[in-house]
Amino acid sequence: MEAIRRIKGTQDILPQEVGKWVAVETKIRQTMNTFHFEELRTPIFEKTELFARGIGQLTDIVSKEMYTFPDRSKKLITLKPEMTAPIMRAYIENKLYALSSVTKLFYIAPLFRQENPQAGRLRQFHQFGAETLGAASPDADVEMIALSLAIYKALGISGLTLKINSVGDPACRPAYRDTLKNYIRPHLNEYCSDCQRRFDENPMRILDCKNETCSRLNEEAPKISEHLCDDCQTHYDQVKAQLQKLDIPFTEDPYLVRGLDYYTRTVFEITSDALGAQNAICGGGRYDLLAEELGGQPTPAVGFASGIERMLMVAEKQGLILAEENRLDVYLVAMGTDATREIGFWLHQLRAAGIRTERDYLGRSMKAQMREANKLKTRYVLILGEDELNNNIFSLKDMEQGEQSQIPFNELIPTVKNLLTK
Ligand code: HAM
């Protein structure tokens, strides 16, 4: 019978990889904690409407990448493609605003987007991210950038580039949009079909197009940074000044617009040269209007999300060791029927003492058991044969030094513990 394979664009995280994931998740949680963010977990699926309204009907994510299906009552449900809208929904629904005026939340979650899979672009991927709800200050924007960089630093990742921009707000964006459309209009038929479609709906996304012709046509496009209203300009200037004060290098990218419609004012991306075409490991920005869009009270907000798979790709390219190899402390080798019967008792005692122990279950020869212990990179082997059993002792082999010694049964646990702490 033909074997069933996993869905294209998904990955099995194999036992030898899981240690790395756990180590990364631990570092993320520690740094989030230092920055005083609290974890929030939301359901894996939501009503489709949440994303349609939150991210924007015309974005790539909503228009072509969501896993959407009707449930048994024919209501449309979507596997979450991102976390900002669910976090905002949960914030409003659970009235988290009543608990404190500024709410700082973080998450580590699997997400789903039906994109064309390639290196660093998956259909199920993982993000960690953070959102601050209730703070309009540019310092909250900078905290987000500082937080993401602190996590990369804690993991030893280097060589990253921070790009920032301001996409304005409803006070200045409409006029800029018109200016941009006036620039694009004479060449509209030279742009790709996606951009032609975006022209009326969301012309700023045209600036983001990776198509070579479109990028060339965009080279002289008017910059939003030159059309910001006073409030947006002041906000942007304060973000830049604070970044400089914190010694965080950045480059301004006047054409950075991001692929989600909820952004206002600050947007940013962190990229790595170690990645190929999909070089963004982190993206974020301010989204002061999303709360109202989802039926809540006006709530200024800012956040970021980082792709864990892409971050691990960078770490690997940079030769970083994120997790210690999970070695076995003790392998119990039994010889003969009586010893094999006894070994289960000792296995239980060693494990109860917190010592990572394994034994043979296949009745293999002494040589095969030693080979297995070697393969598992075991630190110590304890041998129980007929002689040992008669004398109430174990023979111990130090697998690194090759030395052998004997330990009485009644001293086994303290002796092994002592050896392992050396
Ligand atoms: P995003 O730019 O769509 O933003 O995704 C953020 C990061 O998730 C990307 O920079 C990338 O590292 C990773 N990522 C996205 N799609 C994929 C994929 N198909 N495969 C692998 N990795 C991927 C957001 O999701 C916003 N919610 C960020 C945000 C939070 N803005 C404000 N708060």
Write the layout of secondary structure elements.
Elements lengths: L14 H20 L3 E2 L5 E3 H8 L4 H6 L2 E3 L5 E4 L4 H10 L9 E10 L11 E10 L4 H18 L4 E7 L6 H12 L8 H9 L10 H6 L12 H16 L5 E2 L13 E7 L7 E7 L3 H4 L7 E7 H10 L12 E5 L2 H16 L4 E3 L6 H10 L4 E5 L1 H6 L1 E6 L5 E5 L3 H10 L1
Parallel strand pairs: 1-5, 7-8, 12-13, 12-14
Antiparallel strand pairs: 2-4, 3-4, 5-6, 6-11, 7-9, 9-10, 10-11, 14-15, 15-16
Helix pairs in contact: 1-5, 2-4, 5-9
The site of histidyl-adenosine monophosphate has 28 residues, from strand 6, strand 10, strand 11 and helix 11.
Multimeric state:
single chain
Task: Decide which structural class fits the backbone.
Answer: alpha+beta
User: Which sheet architecture does the biggest sheet show?
Assistant: 8 strands, mixed
Bound molecules: histidyl-adenosine monophosphate
Strand content: 15-25%
Q: Give the averaged pLDDT, no decimals.
A: 95
CATH classification class of the largest domain: Alpha Beta
Q: How many structurally independent domains?
A: 2
List the uncertain runs.
none
Distance between the termini: 52 Å
The CATH superfamily of the largest domain bears the name Bira Bifunctional Protein, Domain 2
Quickly count the helices. Answer: 15
